[in-house]
């Protein structure tokens, strides 16, 4: 990455003094609360300082350092992409800096909630510009769409995920063709980070990053879920409970409920949209 894009580093003493409010044995929730409180104080100081002044730069640098865990969290979701983590973190930090410069504390939104879309947006652009998409033959991709549709139909009819032979019989193709289509579809969608979920207009992987996992310090996913549960259909309530409180993967939820993983993904995406709307997140 070019050296010019690196964020300004705050003085070491600033990081030490701000970290002294908590002990090394603090829980994750306590650290998150401390970070939110510190961030609020720093933004209160920043608004009264002249942009470009040394004091403004010091406080801005402290804000960057205090919120770097958010960037590292987002970057860690891309470990499987085999890109240098240092580069991904640096790109995400650029997004963090942009979010700091645009944030208005008077809006009543927590900074991590406001900043995450910007951090993810920078990482998204980085992968869009630098990651090569796997080429999938057109015929296989078209057949994959049919396999997807047949899977949904048969799941509804049977109340469970269909077998490869059942899909093949439905489409009058061989099981090998079904397997080839599924593999092609995985390759296509695993590298097409901008693609909508399964082509149905729902957010893609990167649009959902940062909102799906409840472990991020400073973003109160569990509180949001608890608040919205009573407003959701019973099945979505159960899926969110399994995802957030039982920490099951989509595949495990699929097995638990006896539906396809694709259906679980769509229901989660629908719930994520409600979470964003309730928290005024611009996806």
TrEMBL record:
<dbReference type="InterPro" id="IPR013325">
    <property type="entry name" value="RNA_pol_sigma_r2"/>
</dbReference>
<dbReference type="GO" id="GO:0006352">
    <property type="term" value="P:DNA-templated transcription initiation"/>
</dbReference>
<dbReference type="GO" id="GO:0003677">
    <property type="term" value="F:DNA binding"/>
</dbReference>
<dbReference type="InterPro" id="IPR014322">
    <property type="entry name" value="RNA_pol_sigma-B/F/G"/>
</dbReference>
<keyword id="KW-0731">Sigma factor</keyword>
<keyword id="KW-0238">DNA-binding</keyword>
<dbReference type="InterPro" id="IPR007624">
    <property type="entry name" value="RNA_pol_sigma70_r3"/>
</dbReference>
<feature type="domain" description="RNA polymerase sigma-70">
    <location>
        <begin position="87"/>
        <end position="100"/>
    </location>
</feature>
<dbReference type="InterPro" id="IPR000943">
    <property type="entry name" value="RNA_pol_sigma70"/>
</dbReference>
<dbReference type="GO" id="GO:0016987">
    <property type="term" value="F:sigma factor activity"/>
</dbReference>
<dbReference type="InterPro" id="IPR013324">
    <property type="entry name" value="RNA_pol_sigma_r3/r4-like"/>
</dbReference>
<dbReference type="InterPro" id="IPR014284">
    <property type="entry name" value="RNA_pol_sigma-70_dom"/>
</dbReference>
<dbReference type="Pfam" id="PF04545">
    <property type="entry name" value="Sigma70_r4"/>
</dbReference>
<dbReference type="InterPro" id="IPR036388">
    <property type="entry name" value="WH-like_DNA-bd_sf"/>
</dbReference>
<dbReference type="Pfam" id="PF04539">
    <property type="entry name" value="Sigma70_r3"/>
</dbReference>
<dbReference type="Pfam" id="PF04542">
    <property type="entry name" value="Sigma70_r2"/>
</dbReference>
<keyword id="KW-0805">Transcription regulation</keyword>
<feature type="compositionally biased region" description="Low complexity">
    <location>
        <begin position="12"/>
        <end position="34"/>
    </location>
</feature>
<feature type="region of interest" description="Disordered">
    <location>
        <begin position="1"/>
        <end position="34"/>
    </location>
</feature>
<dbReference type="InterPro" id="IPR007630">
    <property type="entry name" value="RNA_pol_sigma70_r4"/>
</dbReference>
<dbReference type="InterPro" id="IPR007627">
    <property type="entry name" value="RNA_pol_sigma70_r2"/>
</dbReference>
<keyword id="KW-0804">Transcription</keyword>
<protein>
    <submittedName>
        <fullName>B/F/G family RNA polymerase sigma-70 factor</fullName>
    </submittedName>
</protein>
């Amino acid at each position: 990455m070019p050296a010019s894009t690196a964020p300004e580093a705050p003085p070491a003493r600033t990081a030490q003094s701000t970290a002294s409010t908590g002990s090394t044995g603090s829980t994750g929730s306590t650290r998150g609360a401390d970070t939110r409180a510190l961030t609020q104080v720093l933004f209160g100081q920043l608004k009264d300082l002249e942009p470009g002044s040394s004091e403004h730069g010091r406080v801005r640098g402290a804000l960057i350092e205090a919120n770097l865990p958010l960037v590292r969290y987002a970057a860690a979701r891309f470990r499987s992409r085999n890109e240098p983590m240092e580069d991904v973190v640096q790109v995400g930090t650029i997004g963090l800096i942009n979010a700091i410069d645009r944030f208005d504390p008077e809006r009543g939104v927590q900074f991590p909630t406001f900043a995450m879309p910007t951090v993810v947006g920078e990482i998204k652009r980085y992968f869009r510009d630098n990651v090569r998409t796997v080429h999938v033959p057109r015929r296989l991709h078209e057949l994959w769409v049919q396999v997807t549709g047949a899977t949904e139909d048969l799941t509804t009819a049977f109340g469970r995920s269909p077998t490869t032979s059942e899909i093949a019989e439905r489409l009058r193709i061989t099981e090998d063709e079904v397997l080839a289509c599924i593999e092609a579809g995985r390759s296509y969608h695993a590298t097409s980070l901008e693609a909508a979920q399964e082509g149905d207009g729902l957010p893609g992987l990167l649009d959902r990053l940062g909102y799906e996992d409840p472990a991020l310090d400073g973003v109160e996913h569990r509180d949001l879920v608890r608040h919205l549960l009573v407003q959701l259909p019973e099945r979505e309530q159960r899926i969110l409970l399994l995802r957030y409180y039982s920490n099951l993967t989509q595949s495990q939820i699929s097995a638990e409920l006896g539906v396809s993983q694709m259906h679980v993904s769509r229901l989660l995406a629908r719930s994520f949209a409600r979470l964003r709307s309730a928290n005024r997140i611009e996806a």
